[in-house]
Amino acid sequence: MDGDGESYHHWVVCKRANTSPRIFIIEGCVTVGMSIIMYWWLADWPADCRFLTPDEHKVLMWRLMDDSEGDAKMDRVNWSRCARDWKVWVA
Is the Cβ–Cβ distance between 60 and 52 less than 8 Å? Predict the structure, then answer.
């Protein structure tokens, strides 16, 4: 190690991959950029999807209602309900 303040992990990753530390900054910028784009592009709920056909929309809504026992849409986050859901802990 050069003694210039770099951590051992940083030194090993950059030296073994023969890359510059700038690659991590570039990857981070791409991730932040894509997350900003996806925030507006992805639909929050099947009712908002423009790419589903009416039949696909009906099937998806039926499956969501069946899965959640009638209370599928969450207008606001209910943290206690999320914490009690077994699917959250399994995933």
Answer: yes
Question: Which residue numbers in the chain have pLDDT < 70?
Answer: 1-20, 68-75
Residues 33, 41 contacting (CB under 8 angstroms) = no
Query: Residue for token digits 């950029």?
Result: 33
What the block records as the tokens of 42 is 């992805």
What's the token pair of residue 63?
Answer: 């499956």
Specify burial of residue 86 (Cβ count, 10 A radius: 0-12, 13-18, 19+).
exposed
What's the token pair of residue 13?
């990753």
Q: With beta carbons less than 8 A apart as the criterion, state whether 14 and 21 touch.
A: yes
Q: What is the pTM of this model?
A: 0.42
Q: Which two tokens stand for residue 79?
A: 């943290």
CA-to-CA distance for 71 and 48, rounded, in angstroms? Answer: 18
Contact at 8 Å (CB) between 25 and 19? no
